[in-house]
Amino acid sequence: MARAAQPAANALFRDYALNHDMADIDPNNSRKLEDFAEIASDWFWESDAAHRMSYLSGRVETVLKIKISDVLGATRAKVSGAQKPDEGWAEHFADLEARRPFRNFEYSFIRPDDGEKLWLRISGHPIFDSAGLFKGYRGIGHDVTAELETMRRLKESNAALAERNTELTQVRRALERSANEDSLTGLLNRRAFERDLEEALSVENNTVILIHIDLDRFKWVNDTLGHPAGDAVLVTAAERLRHIASGIGPVYRVGGDEFLVVLADNAEIESARWISDSILEIMENPIPIERQNTSVGASIGIAAGLGGKFSPQQLIANADIALYEAKKDGRGCARELTPDMLGQIAAKRQLASQIAAAIQNDQIIPFFQPQIDAETNAVIGAEVLARWQHPELGLLAPNAFIDAATELGIVADIDRCMMQKALAFAERSLAAGLNLTSVSINLSAGRLTDPNLVSEVGACWTNRTCRLSIELLETISFDELQRETIVAENIAQLRAMGVKIEMDDFGSGRASITSLLSVRPDRIKIDRHLVQAATRDPMKRQAVSAILEMARALDIESLAEGVETEEDIAVIRGLGCHLFQGYVYARPLPAAGFVDFLRQRQTRAHPGSTGAQHFSDGRKAAFGV
What number is the average pLDDT over the span 320-336? Predict the structure, then answer.
């Protein structure tokens, strides 16, 4: 028989053998059945009422390598080589005792001639005579070793595949996490934020509220205590934000010390306010860093938008505007976007579009605020301040346009313009007999990194009779400055040229003692808020006194800004400072007003002098005023 036909022969044999009594079969047919059994892979068996083997077809000798004569008369369990697992055999014996038919009972068999382990599967059917008396069992057996081995290998393969699939799933999940989670804090990252915000705003008329959080004093922690301390602060901040926003909205870290919370599904502004207030409160709690406690605080901007009417970029920009207002209002607070804010932004953008032309059209002009020595009452110099003579809006102070100029990258052009005009004014003043001995000019951080700064100062400052001082603005991080090689080189070359370096708004918290020692300015200008507070607050007065003592120890000159009353002057003079600048003497003056101020001061100082007493319109015109 062909191999492909063998399963069909086995099935026919099983069906016939299980349903016919061999004793009742015609001898000729019995011989035919024997022949048929020999070509099948199964074998036929019979047992008597005591379960002793009474018949086995010849196929069993081929498979098990045993003699049938050695097996007849023995029960299956007693056949040499049969293995008896307790549980399986107990169930099999239970079937036999109950005289139930059974199918596919499997047991192992150790072949005696070669010791090979086989797995056998038998099925049987009870036999009863015509009177219903139990006579024994008739059934078939089959070698399933190859089948079970194949199944075993398949299971192993499936298990290995399942393990591999588990590994691949874990890798995929790890990749998904790395793609959507911030590695430091475990929060969702910018990619996840952009995806989620776009999805939330794709739902028509869905109210989405964006809360933009920025840590206030994080940069100080990073610069002073180091990046590991900064990382610890970020992790703590993330845990606090996650706790507050749990169940309300996801929290994202989108870079540096910036975090975002998205409230979707028709969010309510009251929820955003509650979350913001909770964040402001918890962020003021101390964070233990390197055996000391530090506190960073936060500023928050809140903006809302409707799905289908707001783009993600528009909502993000609005939240940024609100955050900027919070920082401008002194930090440590939350601000919601208002129509007034949008109006102010629109106005600033309009101004921004006109700044470049204003510089070209000579609309950016210098104002001068006198600096006085209270011991001699003499003018020792002036700080030069930029003003914009706008053709429609009138005179604009720097806070109306400097931010826009910075964003446009042209604040350096304003610095350059002020320097040229101030030094030209100083030269004309000296030529006219006015005693203007020093001018102080503000410089932005961008100018200090300009490789052309030194050569441009040299080209403008031709008459060195008037001293030139450069004030480093409060917006400059002095600690960062020292890490910029070009900044250190520019300051060194300016000093070599004779330019004096001043540190503005000292005591405002921008400049550290470390940076003071690094920069070693020629003069510090004590912050006006600290000066004014010293009049009424003993603690602030002690702070000013400490600053003055430190400056004297380092041989650094001190000037008090923002003096508005004679009492301010008296208090600060009593602490040892004699150089002042503020409204008590004069507000910032245009060139013409400053010429008059200088003339009047010189006239008082020299009553008999006539050289500077009268300035005709023609002489004023020579000053460009």
Answer: 88
